[in-house]
Amino acid sequence: MRKVYDAFLAEFPLCFGYWKKYADHEGCLDGVNKVFEVYERAVLAVTYSVDIWCNYCQFAISTYNDPDVIRS
Question: In this entry, which stretches build a coiled coil (predicted)?
């Protein structure tokens, strides 16, 4: 699935919904680190997407309780 998501998002990086689906998929397979990698790629590709930033922040808040880690 990673190859499919990577190929699709390389062609259509502005499809923010697929970034979320990709992050969710990675969360089921590999855990927190991969999800953060996907969200980092997403915010670089779709910098002005409020939805991506909200999903990223919600994930960070639910994963970490330390505000300094979340802000970084």
Answer: none
Identify the residue whose tokens are 């680190």: 33
What was the pLDDT predicted at 55? Answer: 95
- pLDDT band, very low/low/confident/very high, at 30 (cuts 50, 70, 90): confident
Closest CA relative to residue 46, chosen from 7, 11, 19: 19
Residues of the chain by 3-state class (helix, strand, coil), percent to 5: 80, 0, 20
- The domains of the chain are located at 1-65
Residue type, position 33, single letter: N
Structure tokens that stand for 39 in this block: 């969200």
User: Tokens in use for 41?
Assistant: 């790629």
Query: What pLDDT sits at residue 68?
Result: 84
